[in-house]
Design goal:
Length: 517
């Protein structure tokens, strides 16, 4: 048996003298196969060595030429960087899935390729989606070598801050998965199979997970000083021949390294620094004030009243203005609005605030335009114009401004004008009754939901955002973050709760893609 700490030269001598071509030819067919496997295994062992120490050591059998690979208890890495176990082909971003599909294994190897933490994941019996799990089990599913769960990945990327203590911890779990260790007691054939059919694919999955996260889901609010410690990964990924690694390096440097080095030092990084940096790199905020884009070839006055332009023109311009604000609302703002927790601070929800301010501004503007008139006939004309605008907003599927104006007409200053309402023509009373029923809050806005569901994602539409905020808050408050499961000591993360939140946010993001022309 080879003693721990034997040098690489000793292994070379053993491989050269113990099993030569002449000796192999004299062995029986079974012995020759065993000797060949041993030589292959020693090559694998050497390819994974750095310096005079290795993760593994070869233990030779006393009875024949066979042996097994076991963990080397005396191994001490020379650097904290993960070692690369094999050279990977340069495939495209989608090839990690095809690698999984082509990883057919024999029955003997099946136990080698199984997930290690599946017992700590609970699946929904109807949908098959992950409901709960431990941190390490969720990361294993995220970087699985068996299949890719795109919906799971989306939820994880968007809500990782509510599941992990920090961005650093989330990255660290993925890096630990990249440095996956084999089971003990593997022979050469099993180790070779494990590397090709599991380890290599897991490495690609980890790399692609980080790539997708940084490219499509990264926000400046995720910046943490400790993330600079992962800069060495760029060299690791280059050594492992990961696909499109130069592009990954550009994204990593642009979104993590450059902002951190430009704004902070290792000694000085507090919440105020983080807030200032996040604001610097945050998405733009559209100011909320009333103005018109289209003016029917008329000069737009500094102060306009409801009769400056037609009802259609006012409705169109309100819609364009509101949609400009709505399309800038980020997923992170939606989460920040319902979480409101400094521990997982996301940078506030500036565009949501602007959107709400815009709605309040419309409401106040309509109230003022009505009550400022001293003559009843002028008030009736203004009230009619407001109802005409609401009708045009309904035709444009702008339920946001429509709600603002209906709220203004239902407010105490306007609704108590009994003589004005009495003088309103019956057809206008019917129109107002119709739109009021649409925005009735009874049964959780059931009428509005049915009407909006009929048009959303088919044509441009602006929702009444208060309904989405209510759904997000009820989902957040009505579901616990952790779940206890019988037989598992550790409390499991309620992943199903995050998936429900993401369904709401995803619909908001989809609505932003249907813009008004």
């Amino acid at each position: 048996m080879k003693e721990n700490g034997d040098s690489e030269d000793e292994i070379d001598d053993y491989s050269a003298t113990s099993v030569t071509d002449e000796q192999t030819s004299d062995l029986s067919s079974q012995e020759a196969k065993t000797a060949s496997e041993k030589n292959d295994g020693l090559k694998l062992l050497k390819s994974n060595k750095k310096g005079n120490s290795s993760f593994f050591e070869f233990q030779k059998s006393k009875e024949d030429f066979s042996g097994s690979i076991v963990l080397n208890p005396s191994y001490t890495p020379s650097t904290p960087e993960p070692s690369s176990s094999a050279i990977l082909p340069n495939f495209s971003k989608t090839d990690s899935t095809s690698l999984r599909n082509n990883s057919e294994s024999t029955d003997d190897d099946e136990w080698l390729l199984q997930n290690e933490y599946d017992d700590f994941l609970i699946y929904d019996e109807k949908t098959g989606q992950v409901k709960t799990g431990t941190k390490i089990a969720l990361i294993e599913h995220l970087t699985s070598h068996i299949s890719t769960d795109t919906w799971f990945n989306e939820v994880m990327f968007q809500h990782f801050k509510t599941m992990f203590d920090s961005t650093f911890e989330f990255f660290n779990f993925i890096v630990m998965r990249y440095n996956l260790m084999p089971q003990e007691g593997l022979n050469y054939r099993q180790y070779d199979s494990w590397v090709k059919k599991k380890l290599n694919i897991v490495k690609v999955s980890c790399y692609m997970v980080l790539f997708e996260f940084l490219e499509n889901y990264w926000y400046p609010q995720y910046l943490e000083n400790d993330l600079l410690r992962f800069s060495y990964l760029l060299e690791v990924f280059k050594d492992d021949k990961m696909p499109d690694v130069d592009r990954f390096g550009e994204i990593f440097n642009k979104k993590i390294v450059e902002p951190l080095r430009a704004n902070i030092s290792d000694r000085n990084f507090n919440n105020k620094d983080k807030e200032a940096m996040s604001k610097k790199y945050a998405t733009k905020v559209i100011p909320s004030h009333l103005y018109l884009w289209k003016t029917e070839d008329k000069l737009c006055p500094i102060y306009f009243n409801l009769f400056s332009f037609s009802a259609r023109t006012i409705a169109e311009n309100l819609t364009i203005k509101e949609f400009d604000i709505f399309r800038n609302i980020s997923s992170l703002e939606c989460l920040d609005r319902v979480l409101n927790n400094k521990h997982i601070w996301q940078g506030g929800s500036p565009n949501i605030k602007v959107f709400i301010n815009m709605s309040n501004m419309i409401t106040n503007f309509i109230i003022y335009e009505i009550v400022k008139e001293k003559q009843i006939n002028k008030r009736v004309e203004t009230l009619e114009r407001c109802i005409d605008i609401v009708e045009e907003l309904l035709n444009l599927n702008n339920f946001s401004a429509m709600t603002s104006i209906v709220s203004a007409l239902s407010s105490s200053p306007v609704f108590r004008l009994k003589k004005t309402w009495a003088a309103l023509p019956e057809n206008y009373k019917g129109k107002f009754s119709k739109v009021s029923k649409v925005m009735d809050s009874n049964k959780n806005f059931n009428t509005y939901r049915e009407l909006f569901n009929a048009v959303k994602l088919k044509t441009p539409a602006l929702p009444f955002f208060g309904v989405y905020l209510s759904d997000l808050i009820f989902t957040q408050m009505g579901n616990s973050d952790l779940v206890k499961v019988a037989g598992i000591n550790e409390a499991l993360i309620n992943f199903n709760k995050r998936a429900k939140l993401q369904l709401i946010i995803k619909e908001i993001k989809q609505l932003q893609q249907f813009s008004y022309n």
